Amino acid sequence: MMMNILSEIACRIRNAIALIPDAETRGKEICVGRDGTPTTHIDKIAENIVLAYLQEKNIPLNVLSEEIGFVDNGAEETLVLDPIDGTTNSVIGVPLYTVSMAIGKTALRDVHTAFVENLVTGDRYTAEKGKGAYLNGNRIHAKKRSVHDSMMMMIYLGNGAHPDSFALAKRMKSSRAYGCASIEMALVATGAADGFLMNAENNRRSIRVIDIAASYLLVKEAGGEIYNLDGTEFDMPFDLDHRSNFLAVGNRDVYDLVMFGPHGLAKKHKHRYGIYANMSIPISVGVTRRVLNALAGEDVILESEIAAALGKEGPAIGEMDVDILITVGGDGTILRAMQRNNASIFGVNAGGVGFLAEIPVDGIEEGIARLRDGRYRVDERLKLQTVFNGKRMADAVNEAVIHTDSVAKIRQFRVYVDGRLATDLRADGVIISTPTGSTCYAMSVGSPIIDPRVNALVMVPMAAFKFAARPIVIPTSSKITVELAMDKGCLLVVDGQEEYPIPGSSRLEFTMSSNYGRFIRFDDDFYSRIHEKLESGL
């Protein structure tokens, strides 16, 4: 149904812009859009058609658009719209400009329907999550293998392009810059291009979510992948304030060449490192000295407490401007670091189990060498957002726990998923856990272990009065509401670090955060980690 709606919208836009008499009228600037860029006549006509169509047909969608910004229609889902992608092309007569539309809830990761039409040729690129990508109704696939000597790359080469982009163009057999990201991405989805690099030196020239929302799903459904330039999986929230660089590839061959080949992007980025240590662990100072020795010659910042112990100065962890934060301690140290700093975390286990840490103390020299060489990947984990009385609490990497504030006193909780009552239970508390947290507190009270690649949350009752009160696995696209059904207080504890008193008869709302936790990893083997750390290590 939604695809038919998008098709009809595109048809109306095509008919309307065909009536614009000339290029001068088409490119006339009439105002400044919500994103701060000039709005042309063709842009505004196309956007107005979309808004009028949704109102006329009473279609329940919010709108996020380049010109008008966010239009809140009270709907659960949002139409992310670039009315004309490639406006300059349309004005100067280059036959590469599109209408680009995607539907999802809050971020690229949950886009489920995408539609891109070249408004000159009439070619239509469509995708639905889990159903593949299509060009004019025919299934398309990204390239499964690429050979360096014959690669064709789409590369942003505008006036904000990074010098590395021009260097990459020189290394390719063939490259193109079309000034229309949706078409360039679509060519990756069809296999005509091996990849597309967006690397702007000036952040204002980087990509916005409206530019990429539809073609993001096209590439993913065609079998391609999209990455941030630090190697993490690419995602963007639905707002106009975020801008990002990225690399879209048909296959891993292209990623490896662009990131790690001669003059690769990964080798050109010199990181700033930070060190944060748990000072309650006796060996922390000695371990930190070893880490510093292994990082000799790098730009390193020490957190204030460990800096003082070494006779140096350093900022508080929340003020550390670093790319990679090395933690010395256990899982609690890592969680504290993640709550206070957005850097990628590289954990040195100087504590107990250290499930989230990457290397043991005796692996420091080898591990830091790999870190400096860029021989790692970044494991991106979702965070849980908690809202109470309209106020956003600290995001959780592991879990949010709602627990009775009195020892041995039971409470009653009602749990709603997307407004529907899921369970009404009496228990000591309720845990809302991420996949990362499913191997922690939630596991100890009966949660299943969830592979971090699964986009799910789990609600886990704690010491429930009824045996029938069981854990419930819930999609990350849903909103979970927990109501304290009694006029008696509880505590909200986030990742075991932050604690908030919650009065009785309150409601708390939990959704997937737009922020992510990032771990530096040397391997992908989650299941070996479970066996070694949880089964053999305990």
Secondary structure layout plus pairing:
Elements: H1 2-17, H2 23-26, E1 29-32, E2 38-40, H3 41-57, E3 62-65, E4 69-71, E5 78-85, H4 87-92, E6 98-104, E7 113-118, E8 124-128, E9 133-135, E10 138-140, E11 152-155, H5 163-171, E12 174-176, H6 181-190, E13 195-198, H7 209-221, E14 225-227, E15 246-249, H8 252-260, H9 265-268, E16 272-277, H10 284-294, E17 299-302, H11 304-309, E18 324-329, H12 331-340, E19 344-349, E20 359-360, H13 364-373, E21 377-388, E22 391-392, E23 399-404, E24 411-417, E25 420-427, E26 429-433, H14 441-444, E27 456-462, E28 472-475, E29 480-484, E30 490-494, E31 498-502, E32 507-521, H15 526-535
Parallel strand pairs: 3-5, 11-12, 11-13, 16-17, 16-18, 18-19, 19-20
Antiparallel strand pairs: 1-2, 3-4, 5-6, 6-7, 7-8, 8-9, 9-10, 13-15, 14-15, 21-22, 21-32, 23-26, 23-30, 24-25, 24-29, 26-27, 27-28, 29-32, 30-31
Helix pairs in contact: 1-3, 6-7
Summary?
With 538 residues, this protein is of the alpha+beta class. The chain has 15 helices and 32 strands.
Explain how this protein is built:
There is one protein chain. With 538 residues, this protein is of the alpha+beta class. It is built from 15 helices and 32 strands. The strands form six sheets. It has an eight-stranded mixed β-sheet with strand order 4-3-5-6-7-8-9-10, sandwiched between helices. A six-stranded antiparallel β-sheet has the order 22-21-32-29-24-25, with no helix packed on it. It is globular and about 75 Å long. The protein starts with a helix and ends with a helix.
